[in-house]
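Retro notes
What went well: the complex prediction finally ran end to end.
Inputs used:
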Amino acid sequence: MDKWKFNLAQKQSMITSATAAVAAFLVLVLVALSFFIFIRGGNFFWPQNIHTIVYKRQDETLQTHFVRLDAKTMRVDEELLHFRYSSPEQLFDGQLTLNESNIISSEAAPSVAVVALKNGGSVIAKVTSITDFQGKRVGIEQFAKVTEQIDEYLQTINFVRQGELADIHRGLAAMDKRGVDEDAPARVKLAKRYYQLQDVIENVERKLDGYVLSVEFADNTSYPLFMQNVSEFYYPNEMNVGEKFLFALSAFGSFISDAPKLNNTSGGVFPALFGTIVMVLLMTILVTPFGVLAAVYLYEYAPQNKTTALIRISVNNLAGVPSIVYGVFGLGFFVFVVGESIDNILFGDDLNSTTFGAPGIFWASLTMAILTLPVVIVATEEGLRRVPQSLRDGSYALGATQAETIFKMILPIASPGIMTGVILAIARGAGEVAPLMLVGAVKFAPALPVDTEFPFVHLQRQFMHLGVLIYDGAFHSQNIGNGSSFIFACCLLLLLIVLSLNLIAIFIRNRLRKQYAQN
Amino acid sequence: MLKLFEHDKLDVNNLKPEQIAIEVKQLNLHFGQKQVLEDVNMAIPKNQVTALIGQSGCGKSSLISCFNRMNDLLHDCEVSGQVIISGQDIYHRKQNVATLRTQVGMVFQKPNPFPMSVFDNVSYGLKLQGVNERRKLDDAVEQALRETGLWTEVRDRLFESALTLSGGQQQRMVIARALALKPEILLLDEPTSALDPLATLHIEELLNQLKAQHTVIIVTHNMQQAARVSDYTAFIHQGKVIEYSDSDSLFTMPKQKRTESYITGRYG
C-alpha cells in the first residue's frame, strides 16, 4: 500500500491542516452563534413589512388578515410560517401559524400601520380617524397635537393626585388616629374638598376616554382604541432601508432605556441591564481584593509545604463546583445566617419585615464573588510567579520590608496577570443565572438597587438580571412570537455587555502591560 | 606604572578601630548541612575598595551577602559569629534588617532595573524611607545620578522607562539607586560580569571615585579587575580566607602557595 505512505513534509502539512481545520471549525461556530443571535435579536427591532393574506381555515372558509411575519420553521416536509396579526378578539399579540399551502394570496399592504400601545403591545391595522371628546372627527394628521393634549390631561390628573389629594389623604389619616369628635368639622371640610377634586379628575378622565383612534382590520371591521393608550403608529411598508435602520436604532435605544412591559415580553430591559451591570461591578469590587490577598498569602508568605499545596488544589477544585451549589450556599449562609444575624443586631425585635435576611443584590454579588474567587486567585498567583527573583532582591537590598516589596513592586508588576483573572471573573459572573435566582435576582423588581433616594445604594434590594429575564422568557413563551424575539434581543444585549466589560478590562490590562513591561 | 600620589598601604591585619568599616569575627555560614564559610575573621578598612577573589562556589558572594543579611532570604541558611558594622553586631536579634540594608547597599551581577521610570527607580529607596517631598527627591536623584556620571546621559529621559537604558547605563543606575540612600558601605557582587568592556571601564572608574564617600567591597572573577580597582584583596578558597592584604603585595608577592597558584591561573 504505497499509496498510504507519506514523506515527512506531507505528514507535517497534514498535521498543520488538521489543527487549522479544528481552529476553522471553532471560528465557524463562533460566527454562527453571533450571527444567529444577531439576526434573531435584531428581528425584535426591525420594522417588518405588513402583508394582507387570505388563507383557508380548516373548515374551508376563507379568512383575511393584516400580518407581520415573525419566523419560518421547518416541520418534516413542509414549511410553517408564523405570523402576528390583530383582530377585535386578539387585539395585540395575535399569533397565527400556517402551512404555506393554506395561504391563497399574500400581498404587501402599504397603507396598514403598526400602532404601538403604551403597555408594550402593538396593533396591526389601518388607521382611519381620530375622534375627540365631543365626538368630532379629527384628521389623523392631527395625531401629534391630540397626543400633546392628552399628555396635558394626564399631567393634570397626576398633579392633582400627587399634590393636593395626597395632602388630604395624609390629613384624614392623621385625624383617624385620634378619632375624636372635635375633628369632625375639619374632617367634613377635607372630605368636601376631596370630593371636589375627585370630580375634577373624573371630568378630565371622561374627556380622555372621549378621544378615540379608530382602526380598521382586514375584514373591514372597525375598532376604537383609546387615544390615551396609544403611543405612536408607523407604516413599515413605506419606509426604505435607511429609515428602517434608524427606526431599529431608536427601538434599540428605547429597549435599553425602558422598563419591561407585558410580563417581560415587550418594552425595554433597563432595570435588568442596570441590575446586571451593578451586580457585576459590585462582584468585581468584592472579588479582586479578596482574590489578590489570598494569592499573595499563598505565593509570597505561606511556607511551600503540603498544607499549602492542599489549599491550592482545593482552590482549583472550587472552580469546578456547579454554580447552583454556590447559589444554595449563598441562600443558606449569606441570606439566612449572616443576613438574619445582621437584622437581629441592627433592628432586634423592632423588625417588622426582613431587610438583610432576604435575598438582595449584595448577597448575589457576594455569592458570585465566591464563585469567581478561584479564577482570580489562580491568575494572580500566575502573575506573581512571573516577577523575577532579581527584582525582589533589588527591592530588599534597598531596605524594603517584605510587605513593601509586595505592595510597591511585585503587585504593580503582576497587575496585568491580576487583570486577566478579573476579565475571566467578569465574563463568568455576567453570564451566570442559576445561583442568582436563589440569592436576589427576580422577574420584576419595583425599584433599582441604586437611585436618588437616601442612602442612594440599596444593597438589600432585589434586582433584575438579563440572564434571569431570558430564562423567565424562555419558560413562559415557548411558541414563536414576540416573546421569543424579545428573548433573543436580551441575549444580544447580554453578549454586548459581556463583550464591552471584557474590552474595558483588556484595555486596562494592555495599558498596565505597557507600563510594567519587563524588556 | 608609576603611582604619583600613592598613600601608604595599611596593614589590614592590624587596623585601628576607627579605620574599620566592617569587622568579621568567627563567621560560620551553613546552607543546610553544607558549610559555606568557615571561621572567617577579617576587618575591612573604611573608604577603601576591597576585592574578594576566588573560584566559583568558594563562598565570596555568600560572604558579602552576610554584610547586609541578604542571606536571610534563603531558607536553610544559618549564620554564627559576628559581623560588626559601626560598633553593632548586625546579627544581634534587635537589629532592624531593613535599616541595615539602607546603610549597606548592594548591587548584583545582572542589572536589575525595576520596570518603572529612571526617576522612580532611583527614588525607590528614599520613598520607602518616607521621603515624599518632591524637591528633596529631585535633589537626591540628581546627586546620585551625578555621582555615577549618569546625569548628563539621562537628564532628559528621567521619566522614561529604565528598561530603555543600555546595559551599562542600567548597572550604573542601579548603583545610583543604592547611592541615593547614602549608604556607608556599598557591596558589589560581580557588577561587570554581564557588561561589555567599555561599560566595565565606566564602572571601574566610578569605583575609584566612590571610595571617597563610601567603603566599597567588590566580588570579582576577573583578577586584572581586582588588581586595577582595589586597594585590598582577600583570596577565599573553600570557605576560608587564605590570604588578605593590600592588592599590590597580594598580586605581586603572594605569601601563600595556593594564592600564587590561583593568580597565576593554575586553577580557578
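What we learned: The CA atoms of residues 19 and 519 of chain A lie 32 Å apart.
What to try next: split runs per interface for comparison.
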